[in-house]
TrEMBL record:
PROSITE patterns: MFS. The keyword Transmembrane helix applies. This is MFS transporter. It is a multi-pass membrane protein. Pfam families: MFS_1. Its main location: membrane.
């Protein structure tokens, strides 16, 4: 499957794409509005970074205990949990004159509610599309993320400048309600693939297997840590633009989203399947290298170019996620991708918190360069271990297991 016409020929995938678009618009509006309130109230890079990217830290509890619900619940019901919680949270955020600390508590609500079902979207996509459509389907959903981050952050900057913040939150709540309706009436229910009993024990057992395997553990770490450190750079866009004397945080977010969008289009549409794994390492390095240039405190035009080029490297995640499809049990697909998604968000939140903490002491541009250097170091360390999950190695391991079974 190589064309957008093919993936969009599936009606439920079209619904899933629209859902992803609206969801990212909601998240972008809500995040930028909340970050603006927090930075204006506290002038703290750390708290602003936590508002932008810290919510997923709450998913650690659910990922460790009840993430298996992604496979035991019907996929439509599981997919409804987080947008419904987002709608409630945005309505609460719209209450005027809330203390900024109470807004942080409200921010945690959708992540707490959705931590048990975070793999449901990828499980649903995998059930809608054939196996050879995974990378293009995933890239197309990422396309929705990139486009709507560009639109959401750009529109959010304009709306915040011209409307009360409570009105922006109400718009976000309306978007969340639209997502709930689209999922309820546009997606057919499918039964769970795992029993609902012993959920905590099964969740822990599958997590131990995935994170203990020398094949899948490096893939998860490569998806989580280098990306999370670069998100830590992005979490400092608002302090960086303030230091530079230019109010351009929304523009920086939009440009980096456009870079991610470009990378996903190229990987999903143009790179042949036989070449995807060959470009994983160069793209993982590209994700961090441009941010080293922030050590020189570049002006806004150069910063925009550096952010755009670096974000193209995010598309390395697509072939890495494809490796998880080929090296894990299909019956656990929701938890496999739920763990990947939860770990990614936790890595992003940790990177944002780390960046914000360092930026309390150092200038934002120097902090961004330090985080980029750390990302490069981790990527280099993980490169040898990632060879175990490469397609050729996976086939060799399968053959070895088959030969062992025959001799047994």
């Amino acid at each position: 499957m190589r064309t957008y016409r093919e993936v969009f020929s599936y009606p439920e995938f079209r619904v899933l794409f629209i859902v992803r678009c609206v969801t990212m618009g909601v998240v972008s509006l809500q995040s930028l509005a909340l970050a603006s309130i927090t930075y204006a109230a506290t002038a703290s890079p750390l708290l602003t970074a936590l508002v932008l990217f810290g919510g997923p830290l709450i998913t650690m509890l659910g990922s460790a205990t009840v993430l298996g619900a992604s496979d035991s619940l019907g996929v439509r019901r599981a997919s409804l949990v987080m947008p419904a919680a987002y709608g409630v949270a945005c309505l609460l955020q719209a209450i005027p004159h809330l203390p900024w600390w109470s807004r942080l508590v409200i921010l945690a609500l959708p992540y707490l509610a959705g931590s048990a079902t975070s793999g449901s979207t990828m499980r649903l996509m995998h059930q809608i599309l054939p196996d050879d459509g995974f990378v293009l389907g995933r890239a197309t959903l990422n396309l929705a993320v990139g486009v709507m981050q560009v639109v959401g952050y750009a529109a959010g900057g304009v709306l915040i400048a011209h409307l009360p913040v409570s009105a922006v939150f109400l718009l976000a709540a309306g978007g969340a309600l639209a997502v709930v309706l689209l999922l309820r009436f546009g997606i057919s229910e499918r039964p769970g693939t795992q029993p609902s009993g012993r959920l905590v024990q099964r969740t822990r057992a599958v997590n131990r297997h995935l994170l203990g395997s020398p094949v899948t553990r490096p893939v998860y770490l490569a998806l989580w840590i280098p990306n999370g450190l670069i998100v830590g750079c992005e979490a400092l866009f608002l302090p960086f633009s303030t230091e530079s004397g230019v109010d351009a945080a929304g523009l920086l977010f939009a440009v980096t989203a456009a870079g991610m969008l470009t990378g996903d289009v190229v990987m999903g549409r143009l790179v042949p399947p036989t070449h995807r794994d060959r470009v994983v390492t160069p793209l993982r390095l590209l994700l961090a290298l441009p941010y080293l240039g922030f050590a020189l405190d570049p002006g806004l035009p150069v910063a925009l170019v550096l952010g755009f080029v670096a974000s193209v490297g995010y598309c390395a995640s697509l072939p890495l996620q494809e490796r998880l499809v080929h090296t894990t049990d299909p019956a656990n697909r929701g938890q496999v991708f739920g763990l990947a998604g939860s770990g990614l968000m936790i890595g992003q939140a940790t990177g944002a918190a780390l960046g914000g903490a360092i930026a309390e002491v150092l200038d934002a541009h120097l902090t961004m360069a330090l985080l980029a250097a750390a990302s490069l170091f981790v990527s280099a360390l993980l490169t040898p271990a990632l060879r175990r999950s490469a397609p050729a190695s996976a086939r060799h391991n399968d053959e070895q297991r088959a030969r062992g079974s025959m001799h047994a």
